[in-house]
Amino acid sequence: MSEASLTVRRLTRSYPGEDGRPRRVLDRLDLDLAGSETVALLGRSGCGKTTLLRALLLIDHPQRGDGGQILLDGEPVPTRRRSAGALRPYRRAVQYVPQDPAASLDPRRDVLTQVTRALRTLDVPGGADEHEATAHTLLAALDLPRDLWRRRPHEISGGQAQRVALARALAPAPRFLLLDEPVSGLDPALRHQVLDLLAGLSDDGGLCPPSPSAADMHGPGLLVVSHDLAAVARVCRRTLVMDDGQVVEDAPTAQLLTEPHHPASRALRDAVPHMPAD
Ligand SMILES: Nc1ncnc2c1ncn2[C@@H]1O[C@H](COP(=O)(O)OP(=O)(O)OP(=O)(O)O)[C@@H](O)[C@H]1O
Predict the structure, then answer these.
(1) Looking at residue 149, which CATH number applies to its domain?
(2) What UniProt keywords apply to this chain's record, in alphabetical order (predicted)?
(3) Which residue has the CA at smallest separation from atom 25 of ligand 1?
(4) Is the residue at 175 inside a domain?
(5) Counting Cβ atoms within 10 Å, is residue 125 exposed (0-12), middle (13-18) or buried (19+)?
(6) Ligand 1, atom 20: nearest CA belongs to which residue?
(7) Per-residue pLDDT tens digits for 123-171
């Protein structure tokens, strides 16, 4: 099976402005991600990163005049008038870990059920036993011991909640995983732990349950949204810099740390407190 691809072509998104006229936030944006890649999406606050993520997750509301295409493996995905059933294959393939994972967990359900329920909702093949086995494997692999599995979100720590959200996102064996600021607000130790975990994810799919495309040996492609070039440099080989609703630089992360071209990239590099020696 060929490598997965997630493609965005000439994507335009707007919000209603104060004068009632649409205010363009994404401006004919193009993006190409491969299933084997680890890509950071950086940019100053307000440049449109979340708007792009929402578009990729098909949870936005395009305004009149908005357009462009999102394609999974070359197939256009409906970005308007979406029916839940028709979108399930896409939702299984493109998963998400939000910025505040603890808040994204269902407060009424225990850790194990957060994962099994996601599998059921997404119509992932297999019965309850198989879903539970997948959840067991992932929770254990993410260092969430069995005595946590029957606890509800308010009974676990923030770092544990983050890993539960990650387990839930990985359970359907996605081909792409989108992460919104995965380490912002974490203490330094936990930050390292999460970054190591993400770095380990990308190479060989080590944590992912067997994918329906088992021939695809790669882990999910990662798209990591962040403000922090230094943090993503540990995980992402490629970095996209956004400014004013467009990708203004697309370069290997190592190159961006040493030779940023666009002023927006230079500002990000200059915000890195200590440049790595290499
Ligand atoms: N629902 C909305 N209605 C109107 N304007 C919005 C809405 N959501 C975002 N915006 C505006 O669109 C622009 C892009 O916002 P977006 O959240 O995509 O930026 P961002 O790059 O994710 O910022 P941050 O890094 O601060 O999260 C901003 O100017 C923001 O104020």
Answers:
(1) 3.40.50.300
(2) ATP-binding, Nucleotide-binding, Transport
(3) 45
(4) yes
(5) exposed
(6) 46
(7) 999 999 999 999 999 999 888 999 999 999 999 998 899 899 999 999 9
**Tokens 């999910």 map to which residue?**
220
Ligand 1 pocket, residues with Cβ under 6 angstroms:
15, 25, 43, 45-51
Residue 14 to residues 68, 175, 236, 245, Cα–Cα distance (Å): 12, 28, 29, 10
What is the residue type of 97? V
Give the separation between CA 169 and CA 138, rounded to whole angstroms.
10
- Atom of ligand 1 minimally distant from the CA of 43: 21
Could you tell me if residue 97 is inside a domain? yes
CA distance 168 to 12: 30
In whole angstroms, give the CA distance from residue 262 to residue 272.
Answer: 16
- In the numeric block, which tokens belong to residue 247? 């990708």
276 found inside a domain: no
220-266 confidence digits (pLDDT tens)? 999 999 988 888 888 899 999 999 999 999 999 999 999 999 999 99
Residue 275 resides in a domain: no
Going edge to edge, which strands form the sheet with 238-243? 94-97, 176-180, 221-226, 38-42, 238-243, 246-252
**Residue range(s) defining the domain that contains residue 88:** 5-270
Pocket test for ligand 1, best of 18, 41, 49 (most atoms within 8 A of CB): 49
Which residue has its alpha carbon closest to ligand 1 atom 9?
Answer: 51
How many independent structural domains does the chain possess? 1
Q: Which of 24, 25, 53, 179 to mutate to test the pocket of ligand 1 (most atoms within 8 A of CB)?
A: 25
What is the reported pLDDT for 243? 95
